[in-house]
Design goal:
Blueprint: H1 3-16, E1 39-45, E2 51-56, E3 62-68, E4 80-84, E5 93-103, E6 106-114, E7 123-129, E8 140-144, E9 153-161, E10 164-172, E11 180-187, E12 193-201, E13 215-223, E14 226-233, E15 241-248, E16 260-261, E17 276-285, E18 292-299, E19 315-320, E20 322-323, E21 329-330
Antiparallel strand pairs: 1-2, 2-3, 3-4, 5-6, 6-7, 7-8, 9-10, 10-11, 11-12, 13-14, 14-15, 15-16, 17-18, 18-19, 20-21
């Protein structure tokens, strides 16, 4: 191969590689909890310099957005209600796990909802807004995002990789077998997936089957030549924990054999830090892009009276992600609550 051709090939391959992990400042700290009584947090750091935040509210009846220039300011930012549940029919109960994404010049908000008359008939839905600022403009209902079969479904996330957009979500298998699994499919635009979907993970380990058989809440980060997918498992009490799948960044992501699954959780409850049930995370970075940050929810007490889903005190928290020498993430233990963040 001629030197010029070899150089061009090397440049082309470098352009296609996943971005390396930032040089993480794992000493960075936050005023945790960032936002009280907000579960399933999703944070987007937009090029306009704002962190946009949405999460499940404890009443399960509406979708809020807020924004701030730093993660620590999110708790004090004004929360704007951009949509409320329907009084009847679909999208009438259990408004859960909203995620905000900017796709092709518009904002899309993916969320889960049950029917007012059948609250556990939960499916995936989408809102759309063409404004530059998602706290402005009109949010339009785009209806149910069909997955290919009808069953309990929630926790949709979307990501683009190597020129293709994907959707990953949680659903009960088409055969009705017990438990929730995580699926992946290519997308044809922001409102539809391309069939067929593939099963990536189901609850198989003991730590994924405590209280309930659960794999849910996928979140994706591409770093160091890998596509990393975190997910949450078990009941939403102190048993809740964070798992991890990964695939090579050049692999066929729709081939389940491309993915490796950690046999143990990568983050779990910490008695020492008084943090319980960490999970349902999203990823963001520091404003300068140099530090990857895990945003997740957890409670600061173990014992819950009654059904955990009715306990409102899953608070949004954040902490920097460490990186091992082999390029894999080190999430560590959930950090203890603190009132004032350190300088950074």
């Amino acid at each position: 191969m001629k030197p010029v051709a070899l150089l061009m090939l090397c440049l082309s391959l470098a352009a296609c590689q996943a971005p390396p992990a930032p040089a993480a400042d794992t000493d960075i700290s936050f005023a945790n909890p960032l936002v009280r009584q907000r579960a399933d947090p999703h944070v987007t750091l937009h090029p306009d310099g704002w962190y946009y935040f949405t999460a499940t509210v404890p009443e399960y009846d509406r979708i809020e957005l807020r924004r701030a220039r730093s993660l620590d300011e999110l708790g004090k930012a004004e929360a704007k209600v951009i949509w409320r549940k329907h009084a009847s029919g679909e999208m009438g109960a259990h408004i859960w796990a909203p995620e905000l994404h900017r796709i092709d010049g518009k904002w899309y908000l993916y969320f889960s909802a049950g029917r007012a008359d059948k609250v556990w008939d939960i499916r995936l839905y989408v809102l759309e807004n063409g404004a530059e600022n998602p706290l402005e403009g009109e949010w339009i209902e785009r209806g149910q995002l069909k997955t290919g079969w009808e069953s309990f479904a929630l926790d949709a996330t979307t990501f683009a990789h190597r020129g293709q957009r994907y959707l990953s979500w949680t659903q009960v298998a088409a055969d009705g077998s017990k438990g929730t699994n995580i699926y992946l499919a290519k997308m044809d635009g922001p409102l539809a997936i391309r069939q067929p979907a593939v099963l990536l993970t189901r609850p198989e380990h003991d730590w994924e089957r405590r209280g309930h058989l659960v794999n849910e809440a996928p979140a994706v980060l591409v770093r160091n030549g890998r596509v990393l997918m975190t997910y949450s498992a078990s009941a939403t009490d102190a048993n809740y924990a964070l798992g991890l799948l990964w695939a090579r960044e050049d692999a066929d992501l729709l081939d389940p054999a491309s993915w490796t699954k950690s046999p143990q959780p990568v983050m779990r409850s910490s008695e020492g830090a008084k943090q319980y049930g960490p999970g349902h995370n999203s990823f963001t970075t520091s404003p300068d892009g140099k530090t990857d940050i895990l945003v997740y929810h957890a409670r600061n007490y173990r014992d819950i009276a009654g059904e955990p889903l009715r306990d409102p005190n899953r608070h949004t928290r954040a902490q920097a992600i460490g990186w091992r020498a082999d390029g894999m993430p080190d999430f560590g233990e959930p950090v203890a609550d603190r009132e004032v963040a350190s300088e950074r």
